[in-house]
Amino acid sequence: MKLFEIVDILDASVLTGKDQMDREFFTAGASDLMSDILAKLADDCVFLTGLTTVQAIRTAAVSGVGAVVFVRNKIPPPEVIEMARDEDISLLSTAYSMFVSCGRLHAHGMTGLDGTR
Questions:
Q1: How far apart are CA 7 and CA 117, in angstroms?
Q2: Fold of 3-110
C-alpha cells in the first residue's frame, strides 16, 4: 500500500514526507509501548501511536519504521517533526482512534508486523 493510499484511508494530515507519497508499505504495528515495536520486525512498516514524543521517533528509527501515524488528532511538537525529517520518517496525523485506524488499514489489505491477516 502506498503512503498516499494510507493518507486517504485514514483521512490523515501529512506532517512530513510529502515527497514520499509513492513509498510502499506492507505491514503495520500499533502501540503506545515502544518496547512492543522494538520486539517486532518493523522494517519499512507503518507505526501507529498516540505518543508524540522524541522516543516514538527514536524507536521508529532504530526499528526501521518508514512512517508514523499519530492517532486521535495528536500533533507532535516541532522538535519531534524535525527529528522525523532528519531520520527520513514520514509523519501523519489522523482523527481516528488507534483501533479504528488499524481496522481501516486492515480492511484495505494491510497486515500486521508478523505478516498475517
A1: 21
A2: 3.40.1390
